[in-house]
Amino acid sequence: MRKNIIMVVNPISGDVDKSELIEAALIFSEKENLNLVIYNTSGVNDVVNIKTLHKTYKSERIIVVGGDGTIKMVAEAMEKENVILGILPAGSSNGLAVDLDLMLTLEENLKIAFLNDYVEIDIITINDKISLHLSDLGLNAELVKNYENATIRGKLGYALQALNTLMDFEGPFTATITANNQTINCVARMIVIANSKKYGTGVVINPQGVMNDGMFELVILKNLDLYVFGQIISGNMPIESNDVEIISTNQATIKTNFPVSFQMDGEYCGTETEYDVEILHKQMKVAIQ
C-alpha cells in the first residue's frame, strides 16, 4: 500500500510560479511509490482544511511549498500531531530554510523533504502565537510592513524599502525586559526575538542562535544608524559594541512605552506594547540533509 504524503502549496508566495516544482514533486512521488495529495492554500480556513486532510490521509510527512509564513501555518495546524515537515523553499522570506541549509537545488530538496531524516527544533510562543524563526519589534517590523504595501517586489523592492524605512523611522522606544529573574530598562530601535541565526536574506542577526537548545535570544539593537546597519548587513554584527546587547533565556516579558510595530517570521502583525515570550523545546520535526 502506498504511503500518503500531503503537500501544502502556497500559490502566491514569493511571486513565483509553482507549476514546475509541483510537476517535479509528482514525478518524484511516483518514482518513490508515494501517493501525493496536493493542497493549495487560499487564505480561508487553511489551518482547518490541513487538519482535515491529515485526519483523512494520516500522512506521516507534510511537504510545505512556500516561505516562513506558510511553514508556520502548517506547524500551527500540526501542533499536536507527530509529523515531519519537509520544506521546498518558495517564499519571499525563506529564513528557516536558510538556517537549515536547505537553499539547494530542487532535486536535492525533493530528496530531503520526502525521504530524509529529521531534526527536532524549538518553537517560540509570543502572546500564544508561534514563531519558528525570527520575530522582532521596531525598525525591521516597519520595513516588513512597508515592503508588504510596496509595488516593487524582490531584492530591489526590499532594498528600497530598507533605505526608506531607515530614514523615516521615528525613533527609539523604551523597553522593560524581564528575563532570567532580572528586569532591565533600555532604549532600543529594534528587539529581535530569535530562535536561529539568520534572516532570509542571509544576514546574521543572532550569532548565538541554536534552534534546538531550549533557549532563545533577545537581540537588543540600541542604535541602528547607517553605520551600524551597514555592519549588520555586511556580516559584521557588532556584538562587542555598546550598540548591541544579547540576552539568552527560555522565558521573557517585554513591555514598551508606546505601541511598536511587530512582525513574526516575515509577516507584519500590527503594533503591541506587551509581549509574553516562551520556548517550547523540540516541538517540531523538520527534514534536513
UniProtKB/TrEMBL annotation:
GO MF entry, a single one: kinase activity
**Alphabetical list of InterPro entries matching this protein:** ATP-NAD_kinase_N, Diacylglycerol_kinase_cat_dom, Lipid_Phosphate_FormReg, NAD/diacylglycerol_kinase_sf, YegS/DAGK_C
> Would the keyword Cell inner membrane turn up in this protein's UniProt record?
no
The record's annotation in Gene3D superfamilies points to:
2.60.200.40, Probable inorganic polyphosphate/atp-NAD kinase, domain 1 (3.40.50.10330)
GO CC terms, sorted: plasma membrane
Read off the Pfam families from this record: DAGK_cat (PF00781), YegS_C (PF19279)
Highest taxon of the source?
A: Bacteria
Matches recorded under SUPFAM superfamilies: NAD kinase/diacylglycerol kinase-like (SSF111331)
Keyword set, alphabetical order = ATP-binding, Kinase, Nucleotide-binding, Transferase
- What name goes with this protein? Lipid kinase, YegS/Rv2252/BmrU family
